[in-house]
Amino acid sequence: MSKFIMASKAGLVLLLAAVMSACGTTNNADTSSSAATAAVTTAVATSGSAANVQLASVKTADLVSFDEEDVATAWSADSATTIALSGTGATVTGSGAVVSGNTVTISAGGTYVLSGTLSDGQIIIDVQDDSSVHLVLNGATLTNSSSAPVYIKEAGKVIMTLEDGTVNTVTDATKYVYPDAATDEPSAAIFSKADLTINGTGTLKVTGNYNDGITSKDDLKIVSGTIEVQAADDGLVGKDLVAVQDGSITIKAEGDGIKSTNDEDTEKGFIAISGGTFDITAANDGIQGETSLVIDGGTYNLVTGGGSANAEVKTGDQGGFGGGGFGGGGMRGQAPSGDGTQAAPPEMPAGDAAAGTAGGTTAPADTNAAASTDTAAATETESVSMKGLKAGGDLTVNGGSFTIDSADDAVHSNSNISITDGEFQIETGDDGIHADSLTAISGGTIKITKSYEGIEGANITISGGDIDVVASDDGVNVAGGNDTNAGQTAGGQDQFAGSGSNMLTITGGTLTVDASGDGLDSNGSIIMSGGTVTVYGPTNDGNGALDYDGSFEITGGYLIAAGSAGMLQAPGDASSQYSIAMTFTDSQEAGQLVNLKDKDGNTIATFAPAKSYRSVVISSPDLKEGGSYTLSTGGSSTGTAVDGVYTDGTYSGGTEVVSFDLSSSVTWLNESGVTEATQGMGGMGGGGRGGMSGGTRPDRGTAGGTPPTGAPSAGTGGTTQSGTDSETQM
């Protein structure tokens, strides 16, 4: 059974396919329609079922194209109209443009070449037909003390070419003078009500003292060039879309770095980036698509909200179910003054640096909930969001190199996330990667070195990639409840339609988790059929390296989990691949080797937990029914260690802890030998296989069960292992 949500963008498919058992149920998490989505099938499974989840890739070419006009940079002096700027005036040679005082008005299609300095004036493009204007900046300096230096009122399209070898600057006023209080345009240093394309190999430096740097009320396309923007609010804004083919873009913004804003048409309001270099420092979001965001390549250095060091300090299990999140943000406000001047730009963050540069006074944030019902007195407000990459709909990354330091989520979608490739270095004060619906990772290298929760989603699928997660709370969290993040939704929270049917699915890739909360946390079930997963979980007994509410079925892949023992869980009895779950009486030292070998001396696993631990869980295709095995600690290995897991080489010199025979899909052990698993809760239900000891979690209630006891196995614990053995796996 599945749920289909359709959008109208032809030819684009984002497909979540699931193979379900007869007892499967439908996940009712809402999946937003977007320009990058034509069909979404969402299905998950209940206990005992299997799933295979894939996301079809969406490319930037599926969303946007660059035509001949967009990429054309050539011009001829014989046919172009030249505009020579000089102080507060200009001289026009050719047709289609006139000068009136300090204002140059272009009223016909054609090519216009600007050079010189306009110290206090305006270039207006007002073409009343569908003709295109090719505006060449050939060493132009444009400044205006009361408005926008470049104001495109109307045209079919404007192509702005940055002439090779030139530096062009555009600087607007800190306070705009409008004809009346109802007028709020222009509102950026370069402001266009028509499609705007920027190309060429020159340099454009824009200072938006009043509000935005460059804004288009239609499409904004960047083909090439070096663009530097400093803005009191947003850096680059395209209402219908922002598309970047290439170029070098540097932005310092007191609002968002790059954003699209159309929230009324699901085929618009998106951002599509195929390449380029981006260095963005933003007080709010780095790159934000109102509907969708698709990135195929490029190099990105994003710092948002002052970076992760500026985030609210949080402790585990905030917001329910380990959800936690970024604290409520400030408010924005603006109000026009009665004399036709705008005291602060629209949506200017009240009280931040932008307000100080805007000139005049800024309306204070509305903190009176009752007053907000009075529409006559209410000010425009929005929650502050400080994310690196953000999409209101689907977010797709097919490549690129990303260095993100964000106070809020580093990569965030209100719908689905698909990462097929790319390199990520992430530090964040909240989630490393978060999707309200599905988070799907099929490739790439992801290093989350600092986060509150590493990877989060209503459903999560990992089918490829090399992923390292460090989290102060949960490492991987499925349907973790509502975060208290600002700017997620109108209510300011991450939204999950969470139920026991939510799923963590691992079919491939390499995942390493270092979590102070739960390592793998599913408020539903876990299915693993491939890949390599290593979890260094919590040292406190209120969390566990593995935590699930439904079932955990493992049919393939390699799993190592080390952590506390108070909430210990392991894969369930329905698994076709065998596992062991070992509990130690005392806490074991971090960095001490753990080795599991078979009776022939072949190593199943050797690893060195990164933190102290009292339990280990190991699952491997090399564990066979009826086999005899020995678990040892200490010693040394000549193998190569990656994230604490050793491959190749030999293990020697360890102390044997327990020897045992494998007789069931999950063998529970303590230092005395094989024991029976307590049929406890293991959280809020652990698939009936769960907690080996009691304990209370703030987000789970009381776990059932007591520390297990049982007869020792035939092996003798506490003896020193002699000789060496060959390492073959893990």
Helix content: under 10%
Overall shape: elongated
Radius of gyration: 30 Å
The main pleated sheet reads as: 18 strands, parallel, barrel
- Taking all residues together, what is the mean pLDDT? 81
Beta-strand content bin: 35-45%
Counting DSSP E segments of at least 2 residues, the number of strands comes to 59
Distance between the termini: 37 Å
Explain briefly what this protein structure is:
The chain is an all-beta fold.
Keywords:
four-stranded antiparallel β-sheet; 2 helices; disordered C terminus; mainly beta; 730 residues; disordered N terminus; 18-stranded parallel β-barrel
In words, what does this structure look like?
The protein is built from 2 helices and 59 strands. The chain is an all-beta fold and 730 residues long. The longest helix has 5 residues, at 353-357. The two termini are 37 Å apart.
Write the layout of secondary structure elements.
Elements: E1 3-6, E2 39-42, H1 68-71, E3 81-87, E4 89-93, E5 97-100, E6 103-106, E7 110-118, E8 122-126, E9 132-143, E10 150-154, E11 157-162, E12 167-171, E13 188-192, E14 195-200, E15 203-208, E16 212-216, E17 219-222, E18 226-231, E19 236-238, E20 241-244, E21 248-253, E22 258-260, E23 270-273, E24 277-282, E25 287-289, E26 293-295, E27 299-304, H2 353-357, E28 389-391, E29 395-397, E30 401-406, E31 411-413, E32 417-419, E33 423-428, E34 431-450, E35 453-471, E36 476-478, E37 503-506, E38 510-515, E39 520-522, E40 525-528, E41 532-536, E42 546-548, E43 552-554, E44 558-563, E45 579-588, E46 594-598, E47 603-607, E48 613-619, E49 628-633, E50 636-637, E51 640-642, E52 645-647, E53 650-652, E54 655-661, E55 666-670, E56 673-675, E57 695-697, E58 701-703, E59 724-726
Parallel strand pairs: 3-7, 6-8, 7-9, 8-10, 9-11, 9-12, 10-13, 11-14, 12-15, 13-16, 14-17, 15-18, 16-19, 17-20, 18-21, 19-22, 20-23, 21-24, 22-25, 23-26, 24-27, 25-28, 26-29, 27-30, 28-31, 29-32, 30-33, 31-34, 32-34, 33-34, 34-35, 35-36, 35-37, 35-38, 36-39, 37-40, 38-41, 39-42, 40-43, 41-44, ...
Antiparallel strand pairs: 1-2, 3-4, 5-6, 44-48, 45-48, 46-47, 46-49, 49-54, 50-53, 51-52, 53-59, 55-56, 57-58
